[in-house]
Structure formats: structure tokens, C-alpha cells
Amino acid sequence: MTPEPRMPAWLDPSPWLGGREATSADVERALGCDAPGPRELAALLSPAANPFVENMAQRARALTQRHFGRTISMYAPLYLANFCTNGCAYCGFASDRVQPRRRLELPEAEEELAKLKEMGFDEVLLLTGERTSHAGFDYLLECVSLAARQFHAVGVEAFPMTAREYALLAEAGCSGVTLYQETYDPRQYDQLHRWGPKKDYLDRLAAPSRAMEAGIRTVGLGVLLGLSDPSFDALCLLRHAAHLQRNHWKSGITLSFPRLRPQSGNFSATFPVDEAWLARLVFAVRIVLPDVPLLLSTRERPEFRDGMAGLGISKMSAGSRTSVGGYGEAEPATEGQFEVSDRRGVPEFCSMLRNRGLEPVFKNWDSVFRDEEGDRHG
Questions:
Q1: What pTM was estimated for this model as a whole?
Q2: CA atoms lying within 13 Å on the CB side of residue 238
Q3: Residue 158 to residue 140: CA distance in whole angstroms
Q4: What is the pLDDT of residues 142-161, one digit of tens each?
Q5: 93 lies in which domain range?
Q6: Number of domains in the chain
Q7: Where is 276: in which H helix or E strand?
Q8: Which residues, including other chains, have CB under 8 Å from residue 150's CB and lie 6 or more apart?
């Protein structure tokens, strides 16, 4: 058997796990702290913080408005392929799931990108499964180049890569890489990732740092809530973000809060997280990281997303499809990676934001700046 991976010292949250027994006084100190960190996050996630949720929400709203104004940045995911060699127990794309497999050929990808452009998007996130002969690095690089000709911000959520591969993506116009650790608990990680390259915990953990070293401007981190103890994973997520900020201060980070959703394979959450706890997690992270963009996807119910917009959350998707392609087809040819809860179209979602005094922003930086960054790192 492969030995269980060991957590690096810079990631280990053990010194702060005692915060789960925090007192009301600890929570009050966390709310008033000028430089909150893991200790404060642990207090805000503890049972002692239950009576302070409204205070946390008000603080999160004020910090969100201070750093992001009354705006919500908009993006769209585009699934390029669902081929995968991994055995992730919780994923609808896992290699043992019986479903049609395909990739978008370049003309199809161009049609899907054009559709997203028509919907108003200027930021796209390109997604694939694990690296395979059907959809490997060269294919992803071609798709990034294609997207960068139409979109001002192009991100990828795919497989871990080498520093050289990340540099080539940056040169092609990729400005962001999203790579979730899924869970930071080494034992749970080893059990949930049954086979495939993703079973390498430490390689996946190091990939965001490689991307930043290679010139990627923004790295997105996250955990899949429901796989492990959420407080443990939240503390590790904060530690990971702090590690990257400390060592790669020229690049930015974003954080996401996906919860496990029904998917092909019907894996059930081992550590269920309800909406109330998710909301408190978002409030707490916003208080501890006031200027980091926080994302909430269409995994969540419309009513919950409406309430969280601007209340810690500063970036959202709308009209999303989790099947390969899906935007230009009446009936997708493949199953989605997971079930989407918020099925509203872009106009309806943007109308909701404006009714709440928030302005959807589809473009907030120029591709010229992206190209200049690429020239410096190329």
C-alpha cells in the first residue's frame, strides 16, 4: 500500500484546532481583531459564535463593500472534456462512472465560446478532467489560445501541471488557474482518491505554487465541503492561502466554497454541511481575508445565492452548464459533473442583483494588461 501522505508543517492547523472550544469572549475578540488569522477563524467557526452570526454577517457585508463596492464579478464555466483516469469517489466524471465521454473539438469550442460571449461574459473558466490522451496539455493550450482571442480573462480548472506548462498557458493568454485540494485531510484524501494521478496529495498541493512561479496572475483555491471535517479543511484552506500570499505576493488568490452535490455515482457527504454553516464560513473567511475575492457557484439554491451576494461573496457564475459544452445544445450530449441548483439565466440573475442594489460586472480589467504580464514572464 502507498504510505499516507504527511501534511507539511506550513499547512498543519493543529495549533488552532482547540479553537473549537472557544468562548464568547474569544469570538468578540475575533470580531474586533485588526489582523485576524487562524485563531480567529477557529473562534468564528466554533459553537460559541452561534449567537454572533448576525454580527458576523454585518461585518462581512461592510468589508465586502469596502473592498469590492456594490459589485459582483461575473464568470462562466465551460467544460471542454469529461475524459478522466482518476477514481475520485465523489465525482461524476470518475473513470468508473458509466456515461458518454467526449471532448469539444476546436470548432465546437469556438461555438460555445461565441455563445458565452453573446450572453455577455468576458471571463471564462475552461474545465477538463484528468490529463488523458483525449484531452491533454496540448489540447488545453489550444483551447486557451482560442478563448484568449475573445475573452479578457481566461482561467483553467484542470489537472496539475509542470511550471513550464503553466508558463506556456500564461503566454497563451491564461490569467488564472483553479485547483481545489478537495480535502486537506491526508487520510480522507487517500481514501477518497482511489486511483489515478490525483491520488498524489503532495503534487496537487504544490501545483498552485508552480502556477504562480510560472506567471499565472491568479490562483483559485477551495475544498469540497462534505468530504472531511469542514472546520479542519477551512483552517487548512486559510493556511494554504497565507502560504501562497507570503511566497508569491505578486499574484492573487480567490477562494471558493463548493458543497458536495448529487452526481453520477451517488456519493453521499460524509460530513454534511448545511446552508447555515456555509453562510457562517463565508462570513468568517471574509472577516479574516477582507480583500480576497470569494466565489459562490450555481451548486447552491437561488434563494441562498441571492442572500449571499455581497454578503462576503464578490464573484458568481450564472446560467452555468456542467456537461461538456451545453450552452449551444438544447439537450447536452453528456451528463454533468454535478447537479446545478440555480438554473436561472443571466438576465434574470443580473436583474436580481440590481434589485438588491448590486451591479453585475462582466469585465473589470483589460486583456492588454494580461498580454503585458505574459510578455514579462515569457
A1: 0.93
A2: 24
A3: 9
A4: 999 999 999 999 999 999 99
A5: 36-377
A6: 1
A7: helix 275-288
A8: 113, 114, 117
Segment 169-227, tens digit of pLDDT: 999 999 999 999 999 999 999 999 999 999 999 999 999 999 999 999 999 999 999 99
Handedness of CA 86, 91, 96, 100 (dihedral sign): negative
345 burial level (CB within 10 Å; 0-12, 13-18, 19+): exposed
Q: In whole angstroms, what is the distance from residue 41 CA to residue 239 CA?
A: 11
> Which pLDDT tens digit goes with each residue over 102-113?
999 999 999 999
Question: Does residue 107 sit within a domain?
Answer: yes
Q: How many CB atoms lie within 10 A of CB 188?
A: 18
Name residues whose C-beta falls within 8 Å of residue 97's C-beta, 6 or more positions apart in sequence: 91, 264, 265
Closest by CA position to 365, among listed 22, 139, 80, 122: 122
* Rounded Cα gap, residues 277 and 357, in angstroms: 25
pLDDT in tens, 62-119: 999 999 999 999 999 999 999 999 999 998 888 888 888 999 999 999 999 999 999 9
Determine, yes or no, domain membership for 17: no
Q: What is the DSSP letter of 313?
A: B
Cβ atoms of 322 and 338 within 8 Å: the answer is yes
Given a contact cutoff of 8 angstroms between Cβ atoms, the answer to whether 299 and 261 are in contact is yes
CATH number assigned to the domain comprising residue 319: 3.20.20.70
Whether residue 96 is contained in a domain is answered as yes
